[in-house]
Every structure is written in structure tokens, then in C-alpha cells.
TrEMBL record:
InterPro entries recorded: NTF2-like_dom_sf, SnoaL-like
Protein name: SnoaL-like domain-containing protein
Listed Gene3D superfamilies: 3.10.450.50
Domain SnoaL-like span(s) in chain numbering: 19-114
Pfam family, one: SnoaL_2
Highest taxon of the lineage: Bacteria
Length: 122
């Protein structure tokens, strides 16, 4: 039996509930819901393993860029056969876009197993 995956909901939830969430407890709860037990996140300069470390990276990123910094989806996530892509942009709320990129996720059992964070060149 094949389960239909709502790729857009899953990747948008990751942006909003993980990478825009400043409350550590809420972010950890979202990661437990959205990610497999032992996820891996590939950043351009780092490989992050495990839910706790992904939460730490997200929290430090938000702290580094200030209280109004946030990620905003750019379009709708697309995916099939367990692979999904969502473009995004980020910067201060109501401010200039500081960075653009995309998340590419491998989905297993309806959850994110591996996440690649791809940054566009400025």
C-alpha cells in the first residue's frame, strides 16, 4: 500500500515549525513529528546528525541573525517517489532578502530522513 505524501505541507512545516521557531521546546516537538528518529542534514559546510543537533543548528541560526529573521517559502514544494524540493528566501521580516536557496528532502515513512540545504550564490 502506497501512502500519499503531502510534500508541500511537510517541507513548509519544516521551514515554519523548525527553522523559524525560536522556542526550543516547540522546535524539538516539531522535529520529533517531522523527522525520522536519526535524520541527517547536509549543509554546505557541515553534516548534522540527529534531531537534537538539527534543533541546535536551527536555534543558533535564528539567534545569529536576529529576532525578525525568517524563512519564507518561494512557491510550492514538489516531490515524488520520496524526494521533495522547496525553494525559499530568508531575511529580516519586511526587510531585504538576505539569502535564497532550497531544501531537498528524502522522505521515509512520511518523515524527513535526509535534508540538503542548498544556498544560491549571492
Amino acid at each position: 500500500m502506497t501512502t500519499d505524501i503531502d510534500y508541500d505541507h511537510l517541507l513548509r512545516s519544516n521551514l515554519e515549525r523548525v527553522f523559524n521557531e525560536r522556542d526550543d521546546d516547540k522546535r524539538r516537538a516539531a522535529i520529533a513529528e517531522l523527522f525520522v528518529e536519526e535524520p541527517v542534514m547536509y549543509e554546505p559546510t557541515n553534516i548534522v546528525r540527529g534531531r537534537a543537533d538539527i534543533s541546535d543548528v536551527a536555534g543558533k541560526l535564528l539567534a545569529q541573525f536576529g529576532p525578525t529573521f525568517r524563512f519564507v517559502p518561494d512557491g510550492v514544494a514538489v516531490g515524488h517517489h520520496g524526494l521533495a524540493h522547496l525553494a525559499w528566501q530568508a531575511g529580516p521580516e519586511h526587510g531585504p532578502v538576505a539569502v535564497t536557496g532550497a531544501d531537498v528532502a528524502e522522505i521515509e515513512g512520511g518523515k524527513i530522513a535526509r535534508l540538503w540545504v542548498l544556498l544560491n550564490k549571492p
